[in-house]
FAD-binding domain-containing protein (Mortierella hygrophila), 174 residues
Amino acid sequence: MTAEHQQQQHQQQHTSKVNDTVLIVGASIAGMMQALLWKAGIPYDSYERAAEVRALGSALCFNATTAQIFKFGSKGYIISRAMLYDVLRRQVHKERFHMDRRVVSISQKNDIDQGNNEGKGGVTVEFQDGSTVRGGILVGADGAYSAVRQNMYAQLKEKNLSPASDDVPLPISL
Ligand SMILES: Cc1cc2nc3c(=O)[nH]c(=O)nc-3n(C[C@H](O)[C@H](O)[C@H](O)COP(=O)(O)OP(=O)(O)OC[C@H]3O[C@@H](n4cnc5c(N)ncnc54)[C@H](O)[C@@H]3O)c2cc1C
């Protein structure tokens, strides 16, 4: 199957099954890695607050198992982060990456809340400009101060669903 054919197939899937779309927040290394989902036929859209992403840091280590996944042979590697980011970027669809889109909140709804037949659950993401998108699954790849994590955490707390261990102070001071 050619890359063009794969892309068409991906777009068809995207338009016909919006509720199956995986929404990825953050387009750095972790988000970019998630975007490879399209290779398994899973539609996605990626939302990034920056106008452009530059891979931070100098290098990272691939152990032998990870190297094989990337078809880099069977040995471990130390690879430049910028190079890895570039390899990933060349394998995803530019048009599925929505830059300058800062996520401020997320909400999840179950079938009863929806009161319609759009499928199971789903998640709605709201951006700083007030616009929203809806998808089936949300991946928070928005880094250390993740807005996705903070939103999820606040919602779990509200529903008394956060693990009790989260309220226990850390046994160490940082
Ligand atoms: C100075 C420095 C040097 C480092 N050097 C190395 C190194 O040499 N090797 C190494 O392995 N690691 C290094 N690290 C650690 C490495 O950068 C992180 O582990 C890695 O970047 C985490 O990747 P990530 O994709 O999870 O998150 P991040 O790289 O933090 O990416 C998060 C992305 O989400 C976006 N985002 C954040 N909030 C929102 C929002 N609300 N809406 C939409 N988008 C959002 C951000 O703009 C960003 O693009 C370094 C870190 C720093 C700070």
Confidence is low (pLDDT under 50) at residues 10-17. The radius of gyration is 18 Å. Residues 25-31, 47-50, 53, 56-60, 81, 102-103, 141-144, 147 surround flavin-adenine dinucleotide (CB under 6 Å). The helical segments are 3-16, 29-34, 64-69, 81-89, 111-114, 147-158.
